């Protein structure tokens, strides 16, 4: 007879993989069931004509504490972005040296005297305070939210930043990270992300972001993972598969995205989940080019509100394996508030980029335009207050995923690990 299963993990994104791996490490017999044909969830990479196209532009920040704890960073062969960026405004690109480590120099270079030194000093103070909070263990975006938080915009206003400065500095940087330009995301998420940029680099693994879930999955016994196995319903100790089969285990962890969790879990268990909030969308246009328009591993962010580009990168300048030899790969993320349709996105991106790089962009060949409908959950203060306050929902029933912790690779990994610890403790008690 097969060994009894200690825990079924539903969903093989980063949270589910991290959870399963931690349970295996603790000697538990685990089964992970994933609906899609491969594990990885929202961290996925497709190959088109030898170019690696991540499903939405994403970066791994090498200062993420959970990344350091759970991943073999050396084996990922990370390529690093330069800490600065090029900021587009009024059709021009201006270099921002290094806003995370040398805010005074960086802000001076961006604003070239058009806004007072006061905002530059405010960035320096913000940096100091955020790093002190992080060092003191008081900046954890994955901790349960028990009191009302401010939005990023409210926190910046309270610090006295000028509107103009927010529009030219914070909106282009963090609008692309949060996938929303309103800066409605809760302040701890902003502060943590700022600290991560200050303490490390934005990176891409060689050959694509999918190398991250691949590494996690390699730490699991081959027979522990079943892909192409959608789950229909979950309760403590039981999982009903879409084909009608029932799997039983001492514990079940729901490690899906928030909308799927709301559908799978018993009605009424988490009242706020009955009305899932709208997720944020992302769009990416990928181009093949003969040469890199940048020639360096730099991020371009745009403050031009009416134009389509949110940010532009050349992944083949950053990490090995993104483009075939002798070619370059260009990604343009489209602003969430750009109203054009997918069919017109590539041409609109080329039109805008021509203003920055000249006519050579007309030779770019569009490889793919992809839309990620449910890219990130709502991380506004109101949304965060409705979340479960920990991974344990009931005896034998647990939850994790970026909708419970914070919407990032770090948040998904942290949630998976802490869910595994809670399961292990629960099993130990019974
Ligand atoms: C476009 C984009 C850009 C991003 N940028 C960054 C970035 O730059 N840096 C960063 O740190 N993070 C970024 N993120 C966020 C990060 O990728 C996510 O927070 C993280 O991958 C979420 O992992 P998860 O395991 O919580 O959820 P998911 O990846 O959604 O995994 C859930 C899994 O559950 C499976 N599932 C769902 N329903 C069922 C079912 N009924 N039965 C079985 N399986 C099921 C799904 O198929 C999926 O594999 C970005 C995300 C996107 C989409």
Report on this structure.
The protein has 3 domains: 7-43 and 210-276 and 379-429, FAD/NAD(P)-binding domain, CATH 3.50.50.60; 45-80 and 280-376, Protoporphyrinogen oxidase, mitochondrial, domain 2 (Polyamine Oxidase, Chain A, domain 2, Alpha-Beta Complex), CATH 3.90.660; 99-199, no CATH class. It has 13 helices and 21 strands. It has helices at 14-25, 65-70, 103-111, 117-135, 152-158, 163-178, 187-199, 211-218, 258-264, 315-318, 342-357, 381-385, 409-429; strands at 7-10, 30-33, 45-48, 51-54, 60-61, 78-80, 85-89, 92-96, 202-205, 225-226, 231-235, 238-241, 246-248, 251-254, 280-289, 299-302, 309-313, 328-334, 365-376, 392-394, 397-399. The strands form 5 sheets. It has a 7-stranded mixed β-sheet with strand order 8-7-16-17-18-15-19. A hairpin with a 2-residue loop joins strand 11 and strand 12. The longest helix is centred in the last third of the chain and has 21 residues, at 409-429. The radius of gyration is 22 Å and the shape is globular. The protein starts with 6 loop residues before the first strand and ends with a helix. It binds flavin-adenine dinucleotide.
């Amino acid at each position: 007879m097969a060994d009894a299963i200690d825990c079924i993990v539903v969903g093989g994104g980063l949270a589910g993989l991290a959870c399963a791996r931690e349970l295996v490490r603790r000697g538990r017999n685990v089964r992970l069931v994933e609906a899609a044909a491969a594990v990885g969830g929202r961290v996925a990479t497709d190959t088109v004509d030898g170019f690696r196209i991540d499903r939405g532009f994403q970066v791994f920040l090498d200062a993420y504490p959970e990344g350091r704890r759970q991943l073999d960073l050396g084996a990922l062969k990370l390529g690093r972005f330069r800490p600065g960026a090029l900021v587009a405004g009024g059709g021009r690109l201006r270099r921002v040296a290094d806003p995370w480590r040398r805010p005074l120099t960086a802000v001076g270079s961006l604003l070239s005297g058009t806004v007072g030194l006061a905002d530059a000093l405010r960035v320096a103070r913000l940096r100091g305070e955020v790093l002190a909070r992080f060092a003191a263990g008081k900046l954890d975006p994955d901790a349960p939210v028990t009191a009302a938080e401010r939005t990023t915009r409210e926190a910046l206003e309270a610090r006295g930043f000028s509107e103009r400065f927010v529009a030219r500095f914070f909106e282009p940087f963090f609008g692309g990270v949060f996938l929303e330009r309103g800066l409605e995301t809760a302040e701890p998420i902003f502060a943590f992300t700022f600290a991560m940029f200050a303490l490390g680099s934005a990176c891409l693994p060689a050959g694509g972001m999918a190398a991250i879930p691949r590494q996690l999955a390699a730490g699991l016994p081959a027979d522990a993972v079943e892909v192409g196995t959608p789950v229909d319903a979950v309760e403590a100790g039981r999982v009903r598969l879409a084909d009608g089969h029932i799997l039983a285990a001492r514990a079940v962890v729901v490690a899906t995205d928030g909308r799927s969790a709301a559908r799978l879990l018993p009605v009424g268990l988490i009242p706020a989940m009955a009305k899932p909030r709208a997720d944020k969308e992302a769009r990416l246009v990928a181009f093949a080019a003969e040469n890199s328009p940048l020639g360096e591993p730099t991020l371009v962010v745009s403050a031009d509100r009416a134009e389509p580009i949110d940010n532009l990168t050349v992944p083949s300048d950053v990490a090995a394996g993104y483009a075939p030899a002798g070619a370059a790969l260009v990604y343009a993320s489209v602003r969430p508030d750009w109203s054009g349709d997918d069919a017109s996105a590539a041409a609109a991106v080329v039109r805008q980029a021509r203003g920055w790089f000249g006519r050579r962009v007309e030779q770019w060949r569009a490889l793919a335009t992809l839309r990620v409908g449910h890219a990130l959950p709502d991380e506004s203060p109101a949304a965060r207050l409705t979340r479960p306050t920990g991974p344990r929902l009931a005896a034998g029933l647990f939850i994790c995923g970026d909708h419970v912790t914070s919407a990032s690779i770090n948040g998904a990994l942290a949630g998976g690990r802490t869910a595994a610890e809670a399961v292990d403790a629960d099993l130990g008690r019974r």
